Sequence to fold (895 residues):
Amino acid sequence: MKFPGGAALWGLAGAILCAGWGLCAVVAPVHAGTTGTPPAAGEFVTFESGHVRPMALSGNGLRLFVVNTPDNRVEVYDTAPGTPVLTESIPVGLEPVAVALASDNQLWVVNHLSDSVSIVDVSVSPARVVNTLLVGDEPRDIVFAGTGNKWAFITAAHRGQNVKFDPKLTTAGTGRADVWVFDTTAPGTALGGTPVTVLNLFGDTLRALARNAAGTRVYAAVFNSGNKTTILASDIGEGGITKPPPTTAADGATQPQTGLIVQKNAAGNWVDSGDPKTGTAARTWNSRVKLNLPDYDLFTIDTSGPTPTVTTTRVTGVGTTLFNIAVNPSSGKLYVSNQEALNLTRFEGPGTRSSTVRGHFVESRITVIDGMTASPRHLNKHITSYASTTGTAAEKAAALATPLEMAVSPDGGTLYVAAMGSNKLGRFSTQELEGDTFTPSAGSHVALTGGLPTGVVLDPGRHLAFVTTRGDNGVSVVDTQSFTEQAHVKMHNPEPAVVTSGRKFLFDASLTSSRGDSSCSGCHIFGDTDHLAWDLGNPDERRVQNPGAYNVNIPRLGRNTNLHPMKGPMATQSLRGLMGNGPMHWRGDRTGQGRSTGETLEQQAFQDFNAAFTALLGNAAQLPDADMAALTNYALSLSYPPSPVLNLDLSLTTAQAQGQHIYNTVTSDTLTTCNGCHAVNAVQNQFGTDGTLAVEGGGVDEDMKIPHLRNMYAKVGMFARNTQVAGAPDAGDQIRGFGFDNTGASGTVAGFLGAAVFTLNATQRHQVEQFVLAMNSEMNPIVGQQVTVTPANAGQRDVSARLNLIVARGKVTSPRAECEVVAKGVIANVPKGWVHNRGTDQFVPDKSSEAALTLTELLSAAAADDAALTFTCAPPGNGTRVGVARTGTAIRDRD
Fold:
């Protein structure tokens, strides 16, 4: 449809952008024929975003749409030949993780890092992005429901720079999970679209969605739902906590005064683990727990009214980490793939003197939901060797680990599941799964060529299943009658070899555990954290000395360099952002002291984790040196995402600025400022730590490494502290059982700063909290952000302002480069791409024979064809790869 006014109004929009908004006022025009140089290619940035719904199949089964997450595209395959044939690649936002068809003519793509949804017209060739919706932080899934698929539902965290509401990060009782709802027929022409509603749910961040057959109900599952565990604080002056035995290490040293993990049982009591080894019964700790964990795992949305609404139906007991949902089209029963964490059990290691989680710390499950009843099904119930040192080959062959996306046959009789940790597609009779009568068997699995499967869609008419394989960024075709892999294709993959060769050692349970049911990703979910605490000490070991360096502002008096093997509960830490941050673990006990010439401290410190493959995963042996080096280099490449709290232009709110001033200038613990320990210097890659140790002070038996502060916003949701301090109030229902500090015992940052060691008043504590929650990271907050300029919105001031902001941030080089701006569109029926050269302020095209353009000229070129242009902030050093050259080199001509 021709936009009224055509190119003339687009030209006016360009003039407004450049003149009225100050973007191009000082830039001389670039004349036709002038060539440009794209920015030099830098290192690929690995975010390891987890797939949720990575494929969509057209109604006739002949077009398959697949997210190419590392290349920021959707690949379109012709499936008619049997072996899929690539027909086109559609540039979308950064880190796409889910796709869904509103109709065979329109594809919606969820861009995890860009906080956006690309609406793609696939009725034409080449396909093209016609609008970009801006949603909350890190969206993950999308489904369509309601009459005629009227509504689009998108999961996102309750935060982010694109939200138009206060996320209330410091307000108790606020849900941290959102579902954004758009009208598919009219998503809005304003900047980012116009949601019909944003549904807020009392849970942590959501991941998966599903709908019933009629489309009258949508189901939403909480990702890091938890398992009703929390931590009892070991407060100074309270006499500590009497823990179950053993109370000493192998050398006779008494365990340090630390906290204790407890769990709410079926009877409603908060109990510890006891000690099965010595026959010590679990004890009740109700008087110590100051919160309640309702454990809302799955929510239901009613789509039948004029506007979708959340019902009061909330299912509990589904699992700890919920991955995906499938609905039986015949019975309406739900299946939720999940992991259950066994973090109530204490200790790793051989278990000679105690209980142990060695080889059995998480269980892979599919939970059947019938109405309000959740019935978990352990996928590896055949394993009987958990009490033994290692498992058997037969157990490994029948195991399935990390179950992700599922698909149910049209008759409701068969369920297929992509088991990422097993490199397999599993198949179950739904009747046997519901009745828990199935027998785990390798005969019910198909091994997949590419490894690490994440998604599955069915083409029942041709008896095919398509499966995405993250191991090689590929797609497998499985014949569901013979249950064999028939074909496999690989997508273009820009990831470096250090990533592709090392990833499997994080996720592949068959490589890293003797039973084939557990891997490092069981706790480090998609390279991040499970948001739990674990007591992974080992009473069969002895004390050693910590050679780590202390912060220069900390006096020698009171230092405790003993590393006790019974360290007590510690919150799971992320594998992201480890490079350049010193020794690892909360105590820095992975010291890296044994590093060889040419090896960084962090490389050796991570390789020191090799012992965990036997002591925790229950493998028969540690990884060979070459494999551990591959895992190490992969892990050290992982990056934190941009802050979803800090303003896109790095400006601070009044409270954040006040908090920053206090952080940098006020002596907060009688010794130094906050920054004196928690160093913040983005140029030096310091976001709260310089890698040194701090003295924890009297009454605390262990010194800790000073932790970074980049992910504090992700820990919001526990506004309580479980203490026996007289008069401590009960906080009521909470979303999380673990909060801040090394054990997760502090419910808020301000609460942590209220400890006796600090001298800040209440106002100062809350101001510092605001600054800390907005802490920057390796990627500035503008990275990933998008705007699509369309014929319908080109003259809108908010669109102009957004584009100006993106281009302006792309020009910033000091104190560090913020992003590289790329533009994508289809002009004259040809897909085109540009990357901004900040030195010349030109957009350099993907054809070296074509002229570089100013922003005004670029918009005018699109206007002449009534075309939409999408601008994206790529990570520094990645603009050329994303914008104009798939190979990541300076060769720009399209392949």
Q: What stands out?
A: The first helix runs from residue 6 to 20. Residues 1-33, 887-892 have pLDDT under 50 and may be disordered. The CA atoms of residues 256 and 701 lie 5 Å apart.
